[in-house]
Design brief:
The longest helix is centred in the last third of the chain and has 22 residues. 73% of the residues lie in helices and 0% in strands. It has a domain of 25 residues. It is built from two helices and no strands. The chain is mainly α and 44 residues long.
């Protein structure tokens, strides 16, 4: 990522937005893939 971000800002960002678990990342990826596939099928 960007190495110029001050450490304090990085700490605030992680406090406000905790990292997603692997399961949440997989679910979100599948959701966006399905949404994209659906719109591709609609627009074709």
């Amino acid at each position: 990522m960007d190495s110029t971000v001050p450490e304090e800002m990085a700490q605030v960002e992680t406090a406000l937005k905790p990292r997603m678990s692997t399961g949440q990342q997989v679910g979100l990826s599948l959701f966006w893939f399905a949404t994209s596939a659906q719109w591709t099928a609609i627009l074709i």
